[in-house]
Fold this protein.
Amino acid sequence: MLIASKLPPERTNRTYFHTGRAAFSFLVDQVVHPKKVYLPTFTCWSLVSAMSRRFPQIELDFYPVKRDLSCVYPERINEGEALVFIHFFGHENTTPLPPCEGTLLEDFSHSYMSQIIPRGHYVFGSYRKIMKVVDGGFVMGFFNPVYEPTRKLDSWLRLSASDWRDVREAENMLDRDWCISDISSQSLEILLSANEPQVRQRRQKNEQFLAHNLSVGTPQITYRRNECPLIHNRLMPSNEERDSLRSYLSSKGVFTSIHWPTHELIHKHGVMIEDTLWIEKHVISFPVSHEYGTNDMEYICKCVDEWKQGNT
């Protein structure tokens, strides 16, 4: 028996990082050591740029994603290979995973507040997709990384931001230069104090309101009860209508986005990307953040109705 005032510190089942791409890079560099990594053709640029900039010596391959967000995985993941799969926008990826002698890396960036049971060998993600924090990424499980030195100037600029130009420049800074470092104290406090059931419920209500009341396009996803929506994706009949609607909503103070423009490396790779390119041209992403209430969703629908009336 040992009785003392100084004892070894306790550990948690989550390891924090500055960003999701830092968490992913830590796994690739320090844990998995793959010779080849598979990414989906439909994905955020951060994973592709992390591989191309930080791991040019590792072979990078892509697998197709269909319009319904189902995946066409390689027939087999061999030893020394890693497959990254994503729960797109908080909607569980139910495509059966291939036989695997390598490693399955599960991107939980969109779904860490969803009640989805992980299936990957390692699970990682970003907190900035859902929570209003200046930084934050994670790997599930206890690790003890030696963080790289950084001044975190992108986080400093976000916390000092006076308008959206500062926030945009902070994002540009992160795209230009980032490292494997720890989360900031401000972000960690917000994450640990968040009421996750309340966040999940509010996002579900906002997404359902848009799914039932938007008068244009069709929903890309039907969310399940155990899922926490990241955004509401709407598929428009044409690229021209989508862009016209985005422009009109912007003039009314409603800012939408496109998930996602296809990375140039995916264009060059030669894999089937027809469905990925189709989504890029037709999707419009509406915010459903828990920061907004029903009145905000009603205003979005009102603005969409005004645009529709002016274009019919």
